[in-house]
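May I ask for an example protein's residues together with how it folds?

___
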Amino acid sequence: ESIRRAGLAHLMAISGLHLGLVAAALFVSFRAVVAMIEPVALRYPIKKWAAVFALVGTFGYLLLSGATVPTQRAFIMTAIVLGAIMIERDPFSMRLVAFAALVVMIIAPVSVLGPSFQLSFAAVIALIAVYEAIRMRWPAWRARRSVPGRLALYVAGIAITTVIADLATAGFVLAYFNRWAVYGLAANLVAVPITAFWVMPWGLLALALMPFGLEQLALVPMGWGIDAVLLVAHWTSDTPGAVLHLPSPPSWLPVLIGFALLWLCLWRGRLRIWGVLPVLVAIAVWSLARGPDLLVSGNARLMAVTDGAGSLVLSSYRRETFVGEQWLAMAGQERAPPWPEPGEALPDDSLRCDRQGCLYRPMGQGGPGVAIVEDGAILAEDCARTDFVVSLVPIFGDCAAPWGAIDRFDLWREGTHAVWFDDAGVVIDTVAGAQGRRPWAHWPEPREEAQ
């Protein structure tokens, strides 16, 4: 949790950073050793040999790590980079990214819809776009500096890389995870060099020493580096205001953000500036986004309502804890006000409960009344005197509520319900409605209506 709050979660996912470090370490070490053999270095393409050696070693690392989907994608991109070195092509270009994305989409088309694909390629596209713009100047800046100056330039490079990757992935991170590590830049400036120059090299050395039973010689200093990274994570996450929470945006907003990112990265000249416009539109729409007034889980074990202050209130913190955490994250909250006990009400009186159910007024005292029924004995009364009914027990007869009703059968048949109220009436979204009735979505058939 501290690593997530510090913006260092990417260090734990075996993906681009780790594959890149392993490939770089194998490539540089092999080439350095072979370069010391003068006859070989002068007569043979040792750079290509080093790329082959790094490719084989990285494939071994892929298998050791369990070959998860993000690791597979990172390996594909790393393999393309090393392949470009073998055929003497530029390994870092937009064409490389396009080819890697095409390969990933052929292997696993569904990955395009996932955050892992979108975050990975958003970061890579932005980084290549920026470094393509400064690649002619960077060697000159480095050549004119002393050792301390080059060290400062390296730190500046980490900072630039972190800022670019953070900005490129910010929209997707907030859309999917509803949280943003405010001090992620500072944490990465310390943790990434420790990981790259201390933890990973000792880890590779430990792997090489394992057949001889000497891995402890490398694992102990590797542990020192891990402790240092955790210290940075704890310090950063404990700082006040370390995490910014935002509610979930409309589902189409990440598409708009992706379009803006591509425009900014792919266009050249003044036309590139127009990519800022979709970003501004996305921010404006996001700020006006409104979450559901009422949520009911598919098994009727958990409910949530939005109080007058806009905070989500959960009916329980012991049942369906994972679902509750997801709902709070979607609302941009870490905690929720307590659900009123029988005979009590929320401070703004938007929700009042007794032992048989609750009365919810999402738009204040002059707005519609929503009955949350837990006891079938009061069902007929609540259907007659409220505008909308949420019954956690089945409704076997008619319910005369003007705006309709949701009962236990609806929840079983359609899954979790999200409900919005306004002066015009009610809008309901369900899990089954979002998934559609497809062969792989095994939802019960609708009930036959009474004749």
